[in-house]
Amino acid sequence: MRIHINDNVEVRDDGHKYALYPIKKGENVIKYGSPIGHATADIEVGQHVHTHNLKTNLSGNLEYSYEYKDYGITYTGSDKFFYGYVRENGDVGIRNEIWIVNTVGCVNKTAKILAERTGAKYFPHPYGCSQLGDDQDITRKILCGMIKHPNAAGVLVLGLGCENSNIGEIKRVLGEYDEKRVKFLNCQDAEDEIAEGVAIIEELKAYANTFKREKINISRLRLGLKCGGSDGYSGITANPLVGSLCDRLVSFGGSCVLTEVPEMFGAEHLLMERCVSREVFDKTVKLINDFKDYFTRHNQVIYENPSPGNKAGGITTLEEKSLGCVQKGGLSPVVDVLDYGDTLSKNGLSLLNGPGNDIVAVTNLTACGAHMILFTTGRGTPLGAPVPTVKIATNRALSEKKKNWIDFDASPILDGETMDKITHRFLDYVCEIASGKETKNEENGYAEIAIFKDGVTL
């Protein structure tokens, strides 16, 4: 397919960029209304704009000024609902599963055997021991976030006994818990850890069976927002669709959380101008600059992104990727900024500290309490979080080729379907997922975790 620019110029419709106007060497190249870098050579109308003639403008930390912009996303309420589970503490879950959360990687295989024998879900990881300082703290906070997650009706915390993040330390970070819902097993203390683990899980399953789905207002829904491998359509179809749904859910009183801080670089001003207070603005500035400092502390440039797959799909600079990525947050006001392991607590759009790495990000979103994750992708991935992970394709070719991965196709936007119409359809689909319909990652049994690491391993 070709795209008509003027009477003399047509270009391929392949997701890549082609100049609509002449651009002089050194001038900014504008996309989504903001600079995505500068031209390294003169660019003629219709000429391909990519790595050979476009370079990032990003550098180090910046200073920002606060001036709030209200885009009119206000609370209206809604009688829309889903069918979920109300826990004894008042939390709401959209699944009624038994989770095995192991405190250390040494018992990964024990957890696997228990899961295979009982139908519980387990999430192998290599952490929980030989970590120091912040790394160990983050591991404990993330594991405790998973233990508290309301999609799990019951949790077996499986320890070894000699690890740094032993059950005693986990209990210290966890705080109060429901003894009917959360149970603990140290493998070194058990004569037969498999038999004891199976018995405990059977108790938890009996407890889980006391919960039944009931009608719950959509204002109780919490969505994590994630962008996988991008292409040139990501900022035109899937990401704006998720942003439109985010705005609608926020207006209904629900909650969304956006992470991947490095993929805010170059677009952070669009988030800062929507911060509801000076305090939230200051936290957002710190969020951005601290993550830039993390890059420079390791002698890395802050713009070392997009990935090869992104570039093959038409994304050239980090600014371009970021300007597409932040669209997942729509135009909603930013009400809070969360650190690693913090729990989502405010209705509206929150920002969550964390990297863009897919497995780390979906784990981070799960631990903060997101019921499901809306995961846009222009390249495709089978990855799944412990919670339902809705894969939204940016283009029809991907949706048709990878039907075993993709849950929803955003490409009809390119064919003229209105954003309002497809958002309405997508919201109905999200409510179906919240009410029990399985995502592709659930059907395929893909549920993985990884925890951010930035320190010494003993």
Fill in the keyword field for this structure.
alpha/beta; Archaeosine Trna-guanine Transglycosylase, Chain: A, domain 4; 3 domains; 20% strand; Ribose 5-phosphate Isomerase B, Chain: A; Rossmann fold; 458 residues; 7-stranded parallel beta sheet
Structure, explained:
- With 458 residues, the chain is an alpha/beta fold.
- Helix 5 links the parallel strand 15 and strand 16.
User: How confident is the prediction overall: mean pLDDT?
Assistant: 93
The backbone outline, from C-alpha atoms, is globular
Beta-strand fraction estimate? 15-25%
* Residue runs with pLDDT of under 50 for 5 or more positions: none
CATH class division of the largest domain: Alpha Beta
Class inferred from helices and paired strands: alpha/beta
Give the end-to-end Cα distance, rounded to a whole number of Å: 56 Å
CATH architecture of the largest domain: 3-Layer(aba) Sandwich
Number of strands: 21
Q: What is the CATH topology assignment of the largest domain?
A: Rossmann fold
**Approximate helicity band:** 25-40%
Question: How many domains in all?
Answer: 3
Provide a count of the helices. Answer: 13
The major beta sheet can be summarized as: 7 strands, parallel
